[in-house]
Amino acid sequence: MLQPVRRSLSRRSLLAGGAGLVGAAALTRSAFAEPNAAVGTPRSVISNPPRDWTPGNPSIYPDPDVIVVDPSFIPLRRPQGAIYRLWTGALWAEGPTWSNQGQYLVFSDVSGNTLYRYIWDDGRVTVFRRPSNNANGNAFDFEGRLLSCEDFTRRLVRWEHDGTVTVIADSYEGKPLNSPNGVAPHPDGSIWFTDPGYGDQIAEGRPDEAGGPTNPQGILNPRIGAEDAGVIGGRKRELPTNTYRWDPSGKLEVVVPEDVVPDPNGLSFSPDHKTFYLISTGKGPGDQGTAGTGVIYAFDLDGKKLSNKRLFTDMMVDGVKCGPDDMSADVFGNLWCASNAPLGYAGVLVFNPAGKLIGRIRLPEVCANLTFGGPKRDRLFMAASQSLYMLETATQGAAPG
């Protein structure tokens, strides 16, 4: 396991030595542009040899894999902030969320059936909960309680301060949920979540009983290695892939049906909670209806009512499709979006509130989920395939989540 290095070089130490003045001039000229190969390109995820992510092999400042696409990204990017790989060892990392009270980050290894905790004080990563019921998306609500989407049990749960668990939702109109995926708390006490079918498969949860969409011929046995299959959670998928709002009164309602946004995944609110963002990822296992197309939509939000659906971004960069999974807003309303794309485009795309691409973060692994955290909430944590990464920024995440 790799440990983080949280101390950044000061500007004074960066410019120290005989080359200080020359270094300062070079930093001024090149701090916010992609490296020029003609004058020597620092190592990056697409260089040969590739960047070395182990401790003791730091990146030059500014980090060449934090790319300014538009000048408006400059105030959000800390020139002395580098990308660190904090830990690696997951099968499929998802759902990072920051605890302000505990000063730790919780994240999922969905396929590994484990919730992990990254402890800020000493940088250790420890098991937080195992088994996790193939927990996927997580979020701390406005009272500091952990919300987890459990693929195996096909439910959304809340862990109370006394250690008990409350089932927020496991069915809708008498039919079991598919596999809750992403979750976002609202200041009014409501909880919004998506319910695609991505967890209805062996690796991330369990397939349907015979005859269900993910096991139509009954060839797969959902009970192998899962003795509770069929005892807890739904046996077969019966619902479309909807997005829901749970009210503190206990009422569950569909806020975005499948025919409006199919295969919903990540979701987020703007800092003022007047805009709701929703990702339509792609066709899930056993999907029978219209498949998602890998885009992000925006809606106006007035109380409980959504209106004015519009395309926020098609996630195309340089002709490359950067499949979205999750996103997180900062306090200025910019949206930081995970990118599932080929090497060089895998990582994070940053959009301003108007949907314009202003920055990119390149990672050597596909990024699934991300969140802001740290004591000042200025660190971007990125759950990317097998690893957890961190970048110090010059902005703050819109709390919580």
List the helices and strands and how they pair.
Blueprint (H helix, E strand, L loop, with lengths): L10 H4 L5 H11 L35 E3 L14 E6 L4 E7 L4 E6 L4 E6 L5 E5 L5 E6 L5 E5 L4 E5 L5 E5 L1 E2 L2 E2 L6 E3 L5 E4 L48 E4 L5 E5 L7 E6 L5 E6 L14 E8 L2 E9 L2 E2 L2 E2 L1 E7 L5 E6 L6 E5 L5 E6 L6 E5 L5 E6 L2 E6 L9
Antiparallel strand pairs: 1-26, 2-29, 3-4, 4-5, 5-6, 7-8, 8-9, 9-10, 11-12, 13-14, 14-15, 15-16, 17-18, 18-19, 19-20, 21-22, 23-24, 24-25, 25-26, 27-28, 28-29
Notes on the protein architecture:
The chain has 401 residues and is mainly beta. The protein has one domain (47-392): TolB, C-terminal domain (Neuraminidase). The chain is built from 2 helices and 29 strands. The strands form 8 sheets. The chain has a 5-stranded antiparallel sheet, with no helix packed on it. A 4-stranded antiparallel sheet has the order 2-29-28-27, with no helix packed on it. Strands 3-4-5-6 form a 4-stranded antiparallel sheet, with no helix packed on it. A hairpin with a 4-residue loop joins β8 (146-150) and β9.
Descriptive tags:
29 strands, Neuraminidase, 401 residues, four-stranded antiparallel beta sheet, five-stranded antiparallel beta sheet, single chain, mainly beta
CATH architecture: 6 Propeller
Q: What is the end-to-end distance?
A: 25 Å
Q: Helical element count?
A: 2
CATH class: Mainly Beta
Number of domains: 1
Range of helix content: under 10%
Broad structural category: mainly beta
Mean pLDDT: 88
Q: Say which CATH homologous superfamily is assigned.
A: TolB, C-terminal domain
**Based on CA inertia axes, which overall geometry fits?**
globular
What is the count of β-strands?
Answer: 29
Percentage of β-strand residues: 35-45%
List unreliable stretches of 5+ residues: 1-39
| Estimated radius of gyration | 21 Å
